[in-house]
């Protein structure tokens, strides 16, 4: 899908934009929710994303066109908009960066065009946050490193928007690099751009198109369930975060955890962290079959123990495997959203057709498939 924010800019604002930016969405290859547990994640930026055409204004107004609406706010009043919730991701970014001394004297006109399905688990919100962060940083007297934009954007999501998410999405959308996935330790924020070698294979995104209701509250529930389990274990073990705990110790102190759900959540988080380390190693060596096996184990864990997949995402993965994919798992926060599969190139098309058909029969939803490969993070494009 080709984007044309420039045309939208001309139509809405009646003059030419002076700059353009693009920010990608992301898929997470493996390591689901491990970023709330100080574990590792393995995401990558993708081709789908949001394009912005931008011009600096002479006053302190920011006007943004997106989703058929033009919404304005003043740099002197960075408060939440109660009518158009999407603009709050943008207001929040100005607010969080200003706290770090990254600010602009004059406002902007911005037209957005997106190829990212909204609320589909491909990080449309983080994509928008870092896109705006990148624009502000470009025009601020004080400039910061990309990593600071990531941190401000996460704070935006956590504090301004009220979702207790980890750092993975903002990190992937800002720091991605073509051809590489990101092996990130969310405890130390050390990372490496890791080779993505799936020669002769495709990575395919399957969008379940299941509306994601109440995702935020369910996300925060998982965080709470993890924390409750950690409170119980604190009496017996030393750790800073869930992923410091070994699977052996978790089993040993299993009966000290009051809520059985907390045990299951921790089991997923700790085991998925180990899977990320293994998967990234296998992927960087091009050992696709073994990598896919780890993906499949990851899906079982996130579905059975973390319980965020649900019927639709389970069905997509099952059908992809039935159709001939080597590995399949949900990606992102779950409760709807997207899955990924890996298949031999010669089989990709046939598997896609099978999945679309079987999924429609079983769920009544239409699924879209996109072939993905690792892309660059947010940047100015002209
Ligand atoms: C959402 C959050 C991320 C991460 C994923 C699950 O996308 O924003 O921080 O927790 O869910 O892996």
Can you characterise this structure?
There is one protein chain. The chain is an alpha+beta fold and 382 residues long. It has 2 domains: 5-194, Ribosomal Protein S5, domain 2, CATH 3.30.230.10; 201-372, Alpha-Beta Plaits, CATH 3.30.70. Helices cover 42% and strands 22% of the residues. The strands form 3 sheets. A 6-stranded mixed sheet has the order 5-4-6-3-1-13, with helices on both faces. It has a 4-stranded antiparallel sheet with strand order 10-11-9-12. It has a 3-stranded antiparallel sheet with strand order 2-7-8, with helices on both faces. The two termini are 19 Å apart. The model has no long low-confidence stretch (mean pLDDT 96). Alpha-D-galactopyranose binds at residues 28, 32-33, 35-36, 123, 165-166, 168-169, 332-333.
How many angstroms does the end-to-end distance come to? 19 Å
Low-pLDDT residue intervals, each spanning 5 or more residues? none
Gyration radius (Cα, Å) is 21 Å
CATH topology of the largest domain: Ribosomal Protein S5, domain 2
Quick one: how many beta strands?
13
Overall geometry comes to globular
Mean pLDDT: 96
As a percent range, the share of helical residues equals 40-55%
- The strand line-up of the biggest sheet is 5-4-6-3-1-13
When the domains are counted, the total is 2
Could you write a compact summary of the structure shown?
The protein has 382 residues and is of the alpha+beta class. It has helices at 5-13, 87-99, 124-139, 146-160, 168-175, 215-233, 247-252, 260-284, 288-304, 310-323, 345-363, and strands at residues 19-28, 40-41, 43-56, 61-66, 69-74, 108-114, 180-185, 190-195, 201-207, 327-331, 338-344, 368-372, 379-380.
